[in-house]
Design goal:
single chain, 132 residues, alpha+beta, Cytidine Deaminase, domain 2, 4 helices, 5 strands, binds zinc ion
Length: 132
């Protein structure tokens, strides 16, 4: 169970890290934060590249950092952008690998937060359970 306090903390972490985004091509800065079972929070930003195709989203940056640190389960995710944008399809799929129907908090630059869930964003998803 994710508390309201944890959700507020998660959004704040995503918005705080957003300034570290490397987005010289799109200027679409994204910060993400994920909540882990031990209560810790890991952040990520989008990292663009001159080749464009090798750019990485903030959400996947955070997930890959968490897995690197030994985590395999995600309890919630927050994303902070100028306009409250939602995770792309690739990030939804990567999140599904480590999460169930978790809260997804979408914040814009004004601090307005829309809450949805991962299964709402990726219905009829394909996950690890389909390979058993
Ligand atoms: Zn993405």
């Amino acid at each position: 169970m994710v508390t309201e306090g944890q959700k507020v903390e998660l959004v704040a972490a995503a918005c705080a890290v957003r300034s570290n985004s490397y987005a010289p091509y799109s200027n679409y800065r994204v910060g993400a934060a994920i909540l882990l079972p031990d209560g810790s929070v890991i952040t990520g930003v989008n990292v663009e590249n001159a080749s464009y195709g090798l750019s990485n989203c903030a959400e996947r940056t955070a997930v890959f950092k968490a897995v690197t640190d030994g985590y395999k389960e995600i309890l919630a995710v927050a994303v902070c952008t100028d306009n409250g944008g939602s995770p792309c399809g690739a990030c939804r799929q990567v999140l599904i690998e480590f999460a169930g129907d978790i809260p997804v908090l979408l914040s814009n630059a004004k601090g307005e937060v829309q809450e949805t869930t991962l299964y709402s964003l990726l219905p009829a998803h394909f996950g690890p359970e389909h390979l058993d």
